[in-house]
Every structure is written in C-alpha cells, then in structure tokens.
Specification:
The complex is a heterodimer of chains A (201) and B (134). With 201 residues, chain A is an alpha/beta fold. Chain A contains five helices and eight strands. Chain B contains three helices and six strands. The chains are: A alpha/beta (201), B alpha+beta (134).
Chain lengths: 201, 134
C-alpha cells in the first residue's frame, strides 16, 4: 500500500525480503545498510531473538532520490524465515508493494525454498494479492559457497523449482560479499515504481 | 492498493495534530497507515524522534496486538498505551487502516490525552474517509 504525499511530493513504498530461514534476508539488508549508509539517516531496526535469528522483522528506510519529481522513500523489511513465525510474517506483508524472494542455493535447502514460496503465495492471498501480480524478484543466494565445496543446487534446478510459473527476474547472489545485492534492490525498486505508475493511471 | 492525499487534506490533518496535541504540550504526534507509512508527523521541535522507524515498529506492534485480540475472541483492541519514565506513547486506531500515535511527557495527563485523541479521530475521519476507499 504505497502512500503518496502530494504536499511534500513524496512516495513511500514498502519492499519485503521473503524466504526460508537462514537464507540471507537480513544479510541483504545489512549489506545495503553498510554500503549505502550515506543515504540512510537512521539506524537499521532489527528485532532478533538470542540466537541471532530475526524474530519479527528488520527495517531499513532508504532514500532513493527523486523520480519524476517525487522523493521516493523505500522502506525495506525482512520477515522471520522460520516456519513457526507465520503470524508475524503475515503482519509484515501487510501493505507490501514489492517482494524479493531470497532462495538458499544449498542443496539441503531445496525443499525449504519451495515451501517458503508457497507460504508467500498463501500469505499474499490472505491480503487478496496474487503472487503473479505483485512485483517480485528472485534472488538465488549463497552462490559463493560453491568455492568452499558445499553442494549447491544448479541454477536450472532452482529456476524449475521456483520460477517455472512465476517467470520473475532472477539474480545469482552472495549477500555476504554483496554480489548482486544492489542489483536485486535496483530491479525490485524499478519494478515496484512501474507497477505504481500503472496503478495510478 | 495505492492511495494519495492532497495538500489540502494533509494541511487539514496537520492542523488537527498541531491544535489538539502539540499546542497542548504533547511532544510528538503522527498519523501512519497499517503498512507503516507516515502520513503526517509533527513535533514540538524539542523532542525529535526517528519517526520512520517508530512508524514501522508501531504498525508491527499494533498488528501483533490485534492478532492477540483475535485469539482471545476480541475483534480488536482499539488503543494501546506504553508508559515510560520521561515519555509515554499512546496509539489509537483511526478507521481500520490508520493509527494515530502520540508521544507525551509527565505534564500531560493520560485522561486528558485520551479525550483529545477521540476528538481528533473524529475530525481526521472526515478528511480520510473520502480520500481512502478500500
């Protein structure tokens, strides 16, 4: 639910990083926070449990600068990935304008990715939103682990598992070193802005 | 579900926040939607807070409390109050989609604030209802 302030000529949009637990959603935001901290005036807000897992959400407001005369303020959120936190995951999705699905490339996480994507579809549906219509980017994270000999899913497998029907843009990424993290963000922002423009016409 | 508010509507909301809260000693008053977007925010210039983060947390917090309400068979809890040593926060729902948040110190009594909040909500509704048709 983007909000347009015609007085300040400002648009606020909400982008949510979704995906299975320990997939790198928070790491994406942390990388963005450290890389672009000159554009971010506030602290990144995180609600974590003792074990360093996201309990409720992480939040990072981000100034995009001007697009078509409007100041664009992007609010980045992550959800808790663990299955048991679905109630809070649903809350964070309220009013979402764009979604980044962070999938874990490790072979052992294959099923978790599919279940989490299904869960995203269900939770969006509870707000009467279709996963096929909401701006969505898939990020295949942890590609760097191949160098350490950890078995990874092939890109073809991940495309087939997750993207056969969605046909969303995808990025191979490593959130920890930052590979394709800004690119993922740029893509979802431009898709979200385009979808807003369409909605407003 | 995108919505926009015009200058005149935002001016109207801001003058309500100014007259009903800031002029009466409330430190900070802001109106947000349940997605965590800030619609209007005012403060007395002495008490500045990071309203963007506060809005995100407030929307999440209110959502969590609403979910708790449903679990015990309540439709909703329409207001929340958190008491601090120097400053306290009061949250109140405006229609189904908005939250009015006020931050105030010891010099403002809770009873008086609640009275002003319910008056302000009625006035804000007359502005928001035509603009926001879900």
């Amino acid at each position: 639910m983007a909000f347009i302030n015609l007085k300040k000529r400002e648009v606020q949009v909400k982008i949510v990083y979704y995906g299975p637990g320990r997939g790198g959603k928070t790491t994406n935001l942390e990388y963005i926070y450290n890389k672009f901290n000159q554009r971010i005036q506030t602290q990144m807000v995180t609600i974590k449990t003792q074990g360093d897992r996201t309990l409720f959400f992480d939040f990072l407001p981000f100034d995009m600068g001007k697009i078509k005369g409007y100041d664009v303020k992007v609010q980045l959120y992550t959800v808790p990935g663990q299955v048991k936190y679905n109630a809070t995951r649903k809350l964070v999705l309220r009013g979402v304008d764009g979604v980044v699905f962070v999938a874990d490339s490790m072979t052992v996480r294959r099923k978790h990715n599919m279940l989490s994507l299904k869960n995203l579809q269900q939770n969006l549906a509870s707000y009467k939103k279709s996963i096929f219509k909401v701006p969505l980017v898939l990020q295949f994270n942890k590609r760097d682990l191949a160098e350490q000999g950890i078995p990874l899913l092939s890109l073809e497998t991940m495309q087939r598992d997750l993207n056969t029907h969605l046909k969303a843009p995808t990025f191979e990424a490593s959130a920890i070193v930052g590979t394709n993290v800004p690119e993922t963000l740029k893509k979802i922002i431009s898709m979200t802005m385009l979808s807003l423009e369409k909605e407003l016409k | 579900m995108t919505y926009a508010l015009e200058q005149s509507q935002l001016d109207g909301i801001e003058s309500i926040l100014q007259e009903d809260f800031i002029d009466l000693g409330v430190h900070c008053a802001f109106l947000i939607d349940m997605a965590g977007n800030i619609i209007a925010s005012l403060d007395n210039a002495r008490h500045k807070h990071d309203v963007y983060s506060l809005a995100a947390l407030a929307a999440g917090n209110f959502g969590a409390v609403s979910a708790m309400a449903k679990m015990i068979g309540e439709e909703d809890f329409s207001l929340l109050f958190h008491k601090g040593t120097a400053e306290s926060i009061h949250f109140s729902k405006v229609m189904n989609e908005f939250l009015l948040i006020t931050i105030f110190g010891k010099e403002v009594s809770l009873g008086f604030l609640r009275l002003k909040v319910s008056e302000a909500i009625e006035k804000i509704k007359t502005i928001l209802e035509p603009a926001y048709a879900p």
